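Write out the 3D structure for:
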Amino acid sequence: MMKFLIMVSASIILCVSVLVGSASATPEMINYQGRVEVNGEPFGASTPTEGLFRFAIVDSSGTILWNNDGTEPAAPGTDIPITVTNGLYNIVLGDTDLTGMTETIPATLFNGDDRLLRVYFSDNTGGDRLQVLDPDQPIISVGYALSASTLSDTLPVSKGGTGLTTIGGSN
């Protein structure tokens, strides 16, 4: 019985420490999936193919506010190799473990104004190096959730009569 209690206690401590640790920071990253065509055909249609990409977040006037290599307000200068399959690719913007991605995405970037993702692409065959894929893509909801980590005021929390937790109000 004592061995069981020690195991349960250790499990509870581990769970609490994982929960506390995971709540301490908001990842400054955004998942993005895109589609690219070359000459009207999905890139990488016959076999998965590596393309070269660069990314920037711009405001509605086109001013670069963030890019994958930190050279803003200029266009990014570092390629990110991404495998494209049947025209589709996925990337976690701000993931500095990726080759060519040296900048996380700061929460302060999403201050309520419109933000757009600008994607630069090269099929990696030489010739025309990089082209901007038009149009810039609007960033909605999820990117703006990053700003929640910058809140400085806390709301009062109370236990309601129904067993539900209510925030900043009466039951």
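The radius of gyration is 22 Å.
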